[in-house]
Design brief:
Blueprint: E1 3-9, H1 13-18, H2 23-29, E2 32-38, H3 44-48, E3 52-54, H4 64-82, H5 100-116, H6 119-133, H7 137-149, E4 153-156, H8 165-173, E5 178-181, E6 199-202, H9 205-214, E7 223-225, H10 243-249, E8 257-262, H11 272-288, E9 293-298, H12 309-314, E10 319-321, E11 327-328, E12 336-337, H13 340-351, E13 355-358, H14 363-368, E14 373-377, E15 410-412, H15 418-426, H16 433-444, H17 451-463
Parallel strand pairs: 1-2, 1-4, 2-3, 4-5, 5-6, 6-7, 8-9, 8-13, 9-10, 13-14, 14-15
Antiparallel strand pairs: 11-12
Organism: Flavobacterium hungaricum
Protein name: UDP-glycosyltransferase
Length: about 475
């Protein structure tokens, strides 16, 4: 008899890895009956033709937002104390005191953080979150659906959303085994793992060690190292066009070589547009020296700002914008949904550009899969002023300590050096490929093409217990 697996999508983040890759196809070949338990506005049945069960209720307990915000701050405070650091709290962002509601919530978070940044306080807040979410209509709806459909396993694609908590609790209270996938390389040190499941699926041994370090309530027997489907498409050569086809599709000049500038969200890099401008000025300068270069600008899929528009217009002689093929189904960042077509687009951009430049992005791994270097900008812009976040903070984060050496990327730490560094990359005198591939293996694991299969293999072993 086929095992019925619920692939739980608390938000749109999991679509990329678990609906748009070969993950479902492999699972069905292995004999699983797969239902997408869908909490997103995206219609999986309508758009992809997959079996789905929609969760209609979205309500949280009134105090869940307060408790989850407090939990993150309490854990980051505790990490700083426990590991004798000061960096964990830099993962926090200021909260708002404007308006009566924001003032009440923020003051409550502050009080909990001040008094509860210890093991006992964190445990108490975790219990309060569960207690509150068990009393919500979302919990009741989830429990009713689970009782009716009787899945053998609930696999949550993202441990971060508050929207996941009630549904996972409902499954656990019915005795249905649950698991979650740690979807990003910075989830664990950021203290963003809000749900507590029976099993955890991580990318690599490195991430397993992090999980056991930051989540002491997790036992080693609960953790499975599987890799991530996120990078599988980069090794699928069937997605690649020829160079001529790619250039023609996007109106590129066959006589030019292109550099990719990968945009960031406004939180990570609030002055990102000026780094694009610096690269454009470098390209103009090198073109005057006899090079034939252009820039492909790929915006961050969840950046809704118009901050690049003036730069794109001013430097349209060297910058071509190729937008990600994502689809908005709402106004929030986690309601911008990826498409299968964007896997191919991203792979072709990696394949047919010389290298990528950005600020602290995991695109270093995407380009590493194509044997291309990554250039990290790490200098202040003159537009930096009080209230604007300095991008240099990103490189001090814990997850950046995973790199095997500084040579895992190329660094521009002074604007005046940018042109020479770019020239050296183009001339084959500078490369980060060797070390970035080592970094890729540390974070992603040694078998990046086998993640989907490994996930199903792990699920099979769990269900045989």
């Amino acid at each position: 008899m086929k095992k019925n697996i619920f692939i739980f999508l608390p938000d749109g983040v999991g679509l990329r890895n678990f609906a748009l890759t070969s993950f479902k196809e492999i699972g069905e070949k292995e004999g699983f009956d797969i239902t997408y338990w869908n909490n997103t506005p995206f219609s999986i049945k309508e758009k992809l033709g997959f079996k789905e069960l929609k969760i209609q209720e979205k309500s949280l307990h009134p105090l869940t937002t307060v408790y989850t915000r407090a939990r993150k701050r309490m854990e980051l405070n505790f990490f700083d104390k426990k590991f004798k650091e000061v960096v964990y709290n830099t993962y926090n962002f200021p909260h708002s005191y404007k308006g009566a509601s924001n003032l009440f919530k923020s003051l409550m978070v502050d009080a909990l953080t001040f008094f509860g940044s210890n093991e006992k306080g964190i445990k108490w807040v975790r219990q309060q979150i569960k207690k509150g979410e068990r009393n919500t209509n979302k919990y009741k709806e989830s429990k009713k659906q689970l009782e009716e459909h009787k899945p053998d396993f609930v696999f949550c694609t993202n441990p971060r959303p508050t929207q996941a908590i009630a549904s996972i609790l409902a499954a656990q209270d019915l005795g249905i085994p649950t698991g979650t996938f740690i979807f990003s390389w910075d989830n664990l040190p950021k203290a963003t793992t809000l749900i507590e499941t029976d099993y955890y699926f991580v990318w690599s041994d490195y991430m397993k060690k992090e999980l056991l370090m930051y989540c002491p309530y997790v036992n080693e027997s609960q953790v499975f190292v599987t890799g991530t489907p996120q990078f599988e498409s980069h090794f699928d050569t069937s997605l690649l066009q020829t160079r001529e086809e790619f250039y023609k599709t996007h109106n590129l000049d066959l006589d030019k070589k292109y550099i990719c500038f990968s945009g960031d969200d406004i939180v990570t890099s609030p002055l990102d547009q000026y780094y694009l401008e610096d690269l454009a000025l470098t390209v103009r300068e090198l073109n005057n020296q006899g090079y034939s270069l252009g820039i492909i600008y790929r915006k961050c899929p969840v950046d809704f700002t118009d901050r690049y528009d003036a730069i794109l217009e001013l430097y349209k002689d060297v910058i071509i914008s190729i937008d990600p093929l994502w689809t908005p189904v709402g106004q929030n960042w986690n309601e911008i949904m990826p498409t299968k077509e964007d896997f191919a687009l991203q792979s072709n951009i990696c394949e047919y550009t010389e290298f990528v430049g950005n600020i602290a992005s995991s695109m270093v791994f995407d380009f590493s899969a194509h044997d291309k270097s990554c250039l990290f900008f790490d200098y202040e812009q003159p537009q930096l002023k009080k209230g604007i976040r300095d991008i240099g903070q990103n490189y001090k984060y814990i997850h950046f300590r995973s790199k095997p050496s500084e040579e895992a990327a190329l660094w521009v730490r002074d604007k005046k050096d940018l042109t020479l560094i770019v020239k050296d990359i183009l001339d084959g005198k500078a490369s980060s490929v060797l070390e970035s591939k080592k970094w890729f293996e540390i974070i992603v694991g040694p078998n990046p093409t086998q993640a989907s299969a490994k996930l199903w293999e792990s699920l099979s072993s769990i269900l045989k217990k």
